Amino acid sequence: MSPFIARPEHGVVWITGASSGMGRALALKLAGEGYKVAVTARSHDKLLALQAEASELPGSIVVLDGDVTQAEDMEHTVAAIEYQHGAVALAVLNAGIYLPARGEDLNHEVFDRSFAVNLHGVVNCLVPAVRHMRARGYGQIAIVSSVAGYAGLPGCAAYGATKAALINMAESLNFELDRMGIHIQLVTPGYVEAPLTAKNKFAMPGILSANEAADAIAAGLKSPAFDICFPKSLVYRAKLLKLLPYSLYFRVVRYFLGSGAKRRSVDTRATPHPAE
């Protein structure tokens, strides 16, 4: 049986983390294709501006404020969408943050905040979304991870760990959700122009605009593929690097980061991290 692929007539698209970056761009892209899109974030004013921008599009955008770190909030959000606007046919769980975590300055706050948003925030949305979809017998879910989840990178001890967990989670859930008629997909972007990446002081290979990323995601959502990854060249290099033995992997990464053999001489301003 072919996997379920949401179309406008099936119900609502729900996007978290939609106030900026590729979440915002994806909301406009799908509204332009005729979907009704429910957007969630903590920034009410930014969501209202997004809604206004979409006012002339074939579809529509509805605003539901919410904090993905609060499980009760997300239960209420999904219930409100279902009651007021229609079935959640597609959920794009995109909310995420990047906080550097380096060996020189390890602290609990960075890990706690990263896991609260990037991992637990996804779970808080996933649980009610799956429950409603399972009751109907169909649905589609896209979990946004990152190529930083494929292997360890300097500065990404917290961010990369959360994204690696999402990759494993999506792979594991695919076995059961498929039997329920729920099509789960994994989105693994590289560098995308956003407030997070705007602060980077280093060259970001293959960086895409938010609109380019949204186009890639929208195309992937219409396919039966499990993995929606882009840009392909960066993704394939990252996957190949992971196949190397650790002795080679660490040397290659250090070489490309320009740190060479001077392991103690780390420029903290030049730590690459793919981020949404």
From TrEMBL:
InterPro entries (UniProt xref): NAD(P)-bd_dom_sf, SDR_fam
Coiled coil stretches, renumbered: none
Family: Belongs to the short-chain dehydrogenases/reductases (SDR) family.
GO cellular component term of the entry, any: membrane
Domain of life: Bacteria
GO MF annotation: an example: oxidoreductase activity
Protein name: Short-chain dehydrogenase
Lineage: Bacteria, Pseudomonadati, Pseudomonadota, Alphaproteobacteria, Hyphomicrobiales
